Amino acid sequence: MKRTYEDILLVIDMQNDFVADDGRCRVAGAKSTVAAISRALASARERGWGVVYVVRAHRPDGSDAETFRRHLFSDGSGVCVAGSRGADIVAGLRPEADDYIVVKTRFDAFYATDLDVLLRGVGARRLYLAGTQYPNCIRSTAVGALERDYEVAVLTDCCSAATPDVAEANIRDMIAMGIRCLPFSDV
């Protein structure tokens, strides 16, 4: 039976390589958002929203990573290598059976993925973004959603950046573009 969801919570890049203390590309503020994202997930599911996890998964040689990150693969370890611990979604935020997973290799979750096809297929109108990090994947995905005529809200208590200044600057810019930025409790 086809599932439909007008509201979708997107959980972006909450993977060990970005969140864990030993993550290869750890974002300083990411770990502190896990509890808020967990609460948002529980509330979204209670409300009957769809949940989509957007995750990075790269080839071991990094040939599908951004050019500025390819050097991280030269020693054989890489970042979010498909099947590695670093690519795993962090404990406490694991997907449930009805959730969707979309794999990406760039900042914008719409770029070269089936995210838009999935969202249109389930009838999505409103997207709520959570995850890491503001200047890269959150902002790029929010703009990508806006360009595709979705109503977009960035959940400020569920998103992170390397510093509070970076978060605040990106929030100001996104608001200026017409993207709603608010804590989940205000949704």
Task: Write up what this structure looks like.
The relative contact order is 0.20. This protein has a six-stranded parallel beta sheet, sandwiched between helices. The protein is 27% helix and 20% strand. It starts with 6 loop residues before the first strand and ends in a 5-residue tail after the last strand. Helix 4 links the parallel strand 4 (126-132) and strand 5. It has helices spanning 16-19, 34-46, 115-121, 134-147, 164-176; strands at 7-12, 50-56, 100-104, 126-132, 151-160, 180-182. The mean pLDDT is 97. With 187 residues, it is α/β, with parallel strands linked by helices. Helix 4 (134-147) packs parallel to helix 5.
Order of helices and strands: EHHEEHEHEHE
Largest sheet: 6 strands, parallel
Number of helices: 5
Q: Averaging pLDDT over every residue, what do you get?
A: 97
Counted beta strands: 6
CATH class: Alpha Beta
User: How would you sum up the global shape?
Assistant: globular
Strand order of the largest sheet: 3-2-1-4-5-6
CATH architecture classification: 3-Layer(aba) Sandwich
The proportion of residues forming helix, as a percent range, comes to 25-40%
Q: What is the CATH T-level topology?
A: Rossmann fold
